[in-house]
Write a structure and sequence with these properties.
Elements (H helix, E strand, L loop, with lengths): L1 H40 L2 H5 L4 E2 L4 E2 L2 H32 L2 H16 L2 H23 L9 H26 L2 H9 L4 H12 L1 H17 L2 H6 L17 H8 L9 H34 L1
Antiparallel strand pairs: 1-2
């Protein structure tokens, strides 16, 4: 009886381990099946290179949404990566233990705040700040609902991801290497730059890629501050319409329009593929970093 229970427990654990991967596969198959209707009648160029989005006229150009996603994600990464890495370097190499122990829970708190709260914060603070103060500095009119607002909110949301992974990477660098560098006359910053950062480069890349993956798929906070206008943005002060916002705003509406449902499922499939790609890439770099640390 005990052997039988042990056998059942092993099988259950194997099933639970395989299930997450199976769910991703089933999502991919389901979205692909739903997307086949529009892929059968629209060419690649009509779907991905045209900017005309008029579902009632049968025009489903996804280019404004793809470019909106790229603009917001890139602005967020430009803002988040240097701040997050410098924060991680300070906490790992320079900060007193008291500061480090006080800061880590705050970073954890940032990760746990619901995205809708970030969105409200963006609407109340970031949108007016950019519309009334930042854009006029450049002689540009902006309502504040723009790419830059989305990028700022998104940057704050991905701070915890990049900081946490970077801290883990820096802690995996042997302290003996730091002591050797310092004993040879290198300054603290030279040791960080030439030893810690170089040794942890693979892990830092993984942290950035994970942050990029999080930024790419974020929905609620971004759609609240980015304007949601299906046009190609020409500057960071223009409104945009990222893919996640398209899905959140439109799914469930106008399902009677031919191919509309299939176009939205294709957008979801693109998001799934991109996020999967970045996660696999991040895992690749993390594995390489772990092997180097051994």
């Amino acid at each position: 009886m005990r052997l039988f229970k042990d056998y059942i427990a092993r099988k259950v654990m194997v099933f639970l381990t395989v299930m997450p991967g199976l769910l991703v596969f089933l999502m991919f198959v389901g979205l692909f099946q739903k997307s086949k209707a529009i892929l059968a009648v629209k060419s690649f160029s009509e779907l991905f290179l045209h900017s005309s989005w008029h579902p009632f006229s049968g025009e489903f150009g996804l280019l404004p949404f793809l470019m909106g996603t790229l603009w917001v994600t890139m602005v967020a990464m430009v803002l988040a990566v240097p701040i997050s890495l410098l924060t991680a370097i300070y906490l790992s190499e320079y900060a007193p233990k008291l500061v480090r122990e006080f800061t880590k829970p705050i970073v954890d708190l940032l990760a746990g705040i619901p995205s809708v709260v970030y969105g409200v914060w963006g609407v109340l603070l970031i949108v007016p700040l950019i519309g009334r103060h930042v854009a006029p500095v450049f002689g540009i009119y902006s309502s504040g609902y723009c790419v830059l607002s989305g990028g700022v909110v998104l940057a704050v949301m991905i701070f915890p991801t990049i900081i946490h992974v970077s801290l883990e990477v820096f802690s995996s660098v042997e302290y003996g290497l730091r002591e050797t560098s310092l004993s040879l006359g290198a300054t603290k910053w030279e040791t960080v730059k030439h030893v810690v950062l170089r040794k942890g480069l693979q892990g830092i890349i993984a942290a950035v890629v994970l942050g990029l993956s999080r930024a790419f798929g974020e929905t609620m906070a971004v759609l609240m501050v980015v304007g949601n206008v299906p046009k190609l943005p020409k500057s960071i002060f223009d409104a945009a319409y990222p893919l996640p916002a398209l899905l959140a705003n439109n799914y469930g509406e106008m399902m009677s329009v031919p191919l509309y449902d299939s176009a939205l499922m294709l957008a979801a499939l693109i998001l799934l593929i991109v996020v999967l790609f970045f996660n696999i890439l991040a895992r690749f770099f993390l594995v390489r970093a772990e092997r180097k640390a051994e």
